[in-house]
């Protein structure tokens, strides 16, 4: 029976409905499949971008630790020169660990005295080669860099600059991928100040480390990039305009990132040091091609299936097969990504661990981690508990962003070490993470080095006591009431009596041993609550927690008795020791000035020595003596005022040649004098001792040198040629390492030959400060100047030291000349000094010559020059003769 039209229509309608339904279903399945694959690809792209962001952040944080290490180093040694700075950077192995390093530098904070403007000019840069243009470069002229410097100063946190073109690579077309990480340096050492105003007030300068981004992070990121899928990796500054060139760009497989306009790039942000960088993965046109092709096949198969059931079933099976293949590809891609992560982490110098949250088991540990924890290649990692890390500790750290701790761990070989570690959740967000990523750095050597440097910076190398700098710091804290147990205390200034006698007689090794012995005695006698320091030379300082006069006097006397009761033995010889003590009590509630307290204690010690040594002198004990001492201190201000008002003047006294020098151009000595404000001449014995005692004499010495050289042609009244001009130098100037440079500059300014000048230093100062005197004499003679040893014969070991002091003239002390005519012993001494002087090649000058009889006798002995009132009465230099008319 033929089918009815209705049945045919029904079949047709059913066929049509089946076909239409099949087409609709096929298209829906294809679209669903496409969205599923695209989501998976988007997720994989986003995970990859986030992983690269973590690698970039780890590298930047490692770079910041370099800057923090330099901040620690310069806080302990703020006065490093360029060579010492270079050695410290090399010791940290910064160039080896960070191939992108361009320079490590330091720019001190300076204020222009005229305009008040701040400057930060680079003074220390290493490596110097290729960075010469950085020396003197002022950060204050660069607004962006200055802003990052001020942010680092106010927060004491690493601050990273915006990307810029490096000074070392400023050729046209050069990529602007330079970046600077900086930290401040504060006065007062570590720890850094916590208050904002204190940080700004105590800022000393800025520590800078610059890197090339492409070199710093390029190799590490490219080692992890999935090269089976073509895309472009970019690192951009979040504040850059969209069209600006990226900081770093890597195009893989030779395929440019033409991009799919329908799909956005995967982006993750990395915040560090005040800057935000974007890690962006840009998919190219091939990224989603496979997914769309498969979706089209599914849809086409659905249409065919609607027409032919077998074709539809076949297409369905093919779609299922392809889905399985895609799943296998995705799983393979995950495995490949994990392998790349492992290869990347094995290249990192930081120990990297992946730890399960539930039981603390270690699922992965890189090569650096195995070395750090002494794991052999075949050893299973085990649990974190076996190395001294607890899961609860990890959990606490994971809840704190940017947390960094120092913990003590123990490797499998039994070695304990200090580690700096960071912990971050993996596999989820917040507390929902099922794994932790743990980073460990062995900080044992760095911490030990820091502790050693801190100890060396605060302790005297010879005695092991506190050094002057640390003692001053603790005295300031005691005066401020912040040094526990010493809010009320006594400051003691102790000086060993006749130390130089032992030092000169037995040598410096004996002197060093003596100082070490006394230091140990003081440490033992003072007690645990006290502070004991070597202030320099044979001077010691103590802070004793005792203010009652009777109790303190007993303790001070115990110190003296202990020293006196322990004779110093050296190579079979014994020396009795005594010391002098000056002391002042203080109460922190009175807010005393530390410098003033130290000066008072020093003055009291000086008075104890003047009173006969081996005694204790407490401030205000003797008002009459203290008053005289204060009067001497008043001279310091008077001398400074005279220098400022140009009330010093020069006299000259000629020397008479007694031998072959007769007829030569005149040789004379300059004498400095001072006028008071009324115009009256002040005797040199009134102001020179105070100037020497309180450290003002070097300023007077420089005034004499500067004035003499500027007016050299007018020093002699007749205006004739000057053979030699002698200038006295104080003992304090001998210790001034900058004096030779100052003299050289003045000679160049005056266009004067150095051989016209002779500088006189006393024998007593030379013997007391032999190393400094020897260095100064060598420097002066290297410049071409002459040197005379004044007051020769008054010291304890004149002839012994004469062999090692290459001077040009000996000036025989006047005590042997005054009674020369009538004293045969003086004649013998003068003759002996003259003979020895000529044997070592020096000229001999007799001073304090008062008569022609003495001159004739000196000529017979072979003395070369005579000086004194019997030869020439000092006269004022003509240029200063009218000074009194200008005075009120």
TrEMBL record:
Domain GGDEF per the UniProt entry, residue ranges: 487-621
Residue ranges occupied by any EAL domain in the UniProt entry: 632-888
Record SUPFAM superfamilies: EAL domain-like, Nucleotide cyclase, PYP-like sensor domain (PAS domain)
InterPro entries, A to Z: CHASE_dom (IPR006189), CHASE_sf (IPR042240), Cyclic-di-GMP_PDE-like (IPR050706), EAL_dom (IPR001633), EAL_sf (IPR035919), GGDEF_dom (IPR000160), Nucleotide_cyclase (IPR029787), PAS-like_dom_sf (IPR035965)
Keyword Transmembrane helix: yes
Transmembrane segments: 12-30, 295-317
Gene3D superfamilies for the chain: 3.30.70.270, CHASE domain, EAL domain, PAS domain
Domain CHASE: 111-250
Predominant localisation class: membrane
Compartment(s): Membrane
Keyword terms: Coiled coil, Membrane, Transmembrane, Transmembrane helix
Coiled-coil features, chain-numbered ranges: 313-340
Superkingdom of origin organism: Bacteria
Stated name of the protein: EAL domain-containing protein
Organism of provenance: Pseudomarimonas salicorniae
């Amino acid at each position: 029976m033929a089918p009815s039209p209705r049945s045919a229509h029904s079949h047709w309608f059913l066929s049509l409905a089946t076909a239409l339904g099949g087409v609709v279903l096929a298209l829906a399945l294809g679209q669903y499949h496409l969205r599923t694959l695209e989501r998976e690809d988007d997720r994989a792209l986003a995970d990859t971008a986030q992983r690269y962001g973590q690698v970039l952040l780890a590298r930047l944080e490692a770079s910041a630790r370099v800057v923090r290490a330099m901040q620690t180093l310069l806080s302990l040694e703020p006065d490093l020169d360029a060579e010492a700075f270079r050695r410290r950077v090399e010791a940290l192995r910064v160039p080896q660990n960070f191939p992108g390093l361009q320079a490590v530098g330091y720019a001190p904070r300076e204020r222009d005295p005229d305009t008040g403007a701040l400057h930060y000019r680079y003074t220390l840069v290493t490596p110097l080669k290729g960075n010469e243009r950085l020396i003197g470069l002022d950060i204050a002229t660069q607004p962006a860099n200055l802003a990052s410097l001020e942010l680092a100063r106010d927060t004491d946190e690493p601050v990273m600059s915006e990307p810029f073109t490096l000074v070392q690579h400023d050729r046209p077309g050069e990529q602007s991928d330079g970046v600077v990480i900086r930290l401040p340096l504060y006065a007062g050492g570590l720890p850094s100040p916590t208050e904002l105003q204190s940080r700004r007030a105590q800022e000393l300068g800025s520590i800078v480390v610059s890197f090339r981004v492409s070199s710093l992070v390029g190799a590490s990121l490219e080692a992890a990039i999935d090269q089976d899928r073509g895309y472009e990796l970019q690192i951009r500054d979040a504040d850059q305009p969209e069209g600006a060139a990226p900081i770093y760009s890597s195009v893989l497989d030779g395929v440019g990132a033409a991009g799919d306009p329908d799909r956005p790039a995967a982006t993750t942000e990395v915040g560090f040091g005040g800057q935000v960088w974007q890690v962006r993965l840009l998919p190219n046109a091939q990224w989603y091609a496979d997914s769309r092709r498969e979706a089209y096949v599914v849809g086409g198969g659905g249409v065919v299936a609607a027409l032919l059931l077998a074709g539809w079933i076949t297409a369905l099976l093919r779609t299922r097969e392809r889905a399985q293949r895609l799943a296998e590809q995705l799983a393979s891609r995950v495995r490949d990504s994990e392998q790349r992560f492992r290869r990347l982490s094995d290249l990192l110098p930081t120990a990297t661990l992946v730890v399960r949250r539930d039981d603390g088991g270690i699922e992965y540990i890189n090569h650096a981690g195995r070395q750090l924890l002494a794991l052999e290649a075949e050893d299973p990692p085990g649990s974190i508990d076996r190395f001294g890390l607890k899961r609860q500790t990890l959990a606490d750290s994971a809840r704190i962003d940017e947390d960094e701790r120092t913990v003590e761990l123990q490797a499998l070989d039994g070695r304990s070490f200090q580690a700096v570690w960071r912990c971050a959740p993996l596999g989820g967000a917040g507390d929902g993470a099922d794994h932790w990523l743990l980073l460990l750095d062995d900080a044992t050597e760095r911490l030990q080095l820091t502790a050693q440097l801190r100890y060396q910076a605060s302790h005297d190398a010879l005695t092991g006591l506190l050094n002057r700098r640390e003692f001053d710091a603790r005295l300031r804290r005691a005066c401020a009431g912040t040094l526990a147990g010493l809010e009320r205390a006594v400051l003691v200034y102790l000086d060993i009596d006749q130390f130089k006698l032992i030092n000169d007689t037995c040598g410096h090794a004996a002197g060093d041993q003596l100082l070490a012995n006394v230091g140990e005695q003081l440490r033992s006698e003072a007690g645990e609550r006290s502070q004991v320091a070597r202030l320099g030379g044979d001077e010691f300082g103590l802070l004793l927690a005792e203010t009652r006069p009777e109790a303190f006097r007993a303790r001070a006397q115990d110190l003296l008795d202990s020293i006196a009761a322990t004779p110093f033995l050296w190579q079979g010889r014994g020396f009795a020791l005594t010391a002098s003590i000056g002391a002042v009590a203080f109460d922190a509630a009175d807010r005393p000035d530390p410098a003033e307290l130290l000066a008072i204690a020093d003055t009291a010690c000086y008075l104890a020595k003047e009173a006969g040594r081996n005694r204790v002198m407490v401030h205000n004990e003797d008002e009459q003596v203290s008053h005289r001492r204060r009067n001497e201190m008043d001279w310091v201000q008077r001398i400074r005022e005279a220098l400022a008002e140009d009330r010093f003047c020069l006299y000259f006294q000629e020397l008479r040649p007694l031998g072959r020098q007769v007829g030569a151009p005149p040789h004379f000595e300059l004498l400095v004098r001072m006028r008071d404000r009324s115009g009256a001449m002040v005797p040199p014995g009134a102001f020179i001792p105070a100037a020497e005692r309180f450290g003002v004499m070097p300023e007077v010495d420089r005034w004499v040198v500067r004035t003499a050289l500027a007016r050299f042609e007018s020093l002699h009244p007749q205006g004739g040629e000057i053979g030699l001009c002698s200038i006295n130098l104080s003992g304090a100037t001998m210790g001034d390492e900058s004096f030779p440079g100052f003299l050289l500059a003045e000679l160049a300014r005056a266009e004067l030959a150095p051989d016209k000048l002779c500088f006189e230093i006393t024998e007593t100062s030379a013997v007391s400060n032999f190393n400094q005197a020897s260095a100064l004499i060598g420097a002066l003679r290297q410049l071409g100047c002459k040197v005379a040893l004044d007051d020769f014969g008054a010291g304890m070991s004149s002839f012994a030291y004469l062999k090692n002091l290459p001077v040009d003239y000996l000036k025989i002390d006047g005590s042997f000349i005054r009674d020369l005519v009538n004293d045969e012993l003086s004649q013998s001494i003068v003759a002996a000094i003259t003979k020895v002087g000529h044997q070592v090649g020096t000229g001999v000058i007799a001073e304090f010559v008062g008569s022609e009889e003495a001159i004739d006798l000196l000529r017979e002995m072979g003395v070369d020059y005579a000086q004194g009132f019997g030869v020439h009465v000092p006269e004022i230099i003509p240029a200063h003769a009218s000074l009194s008319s200008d005075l009120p």
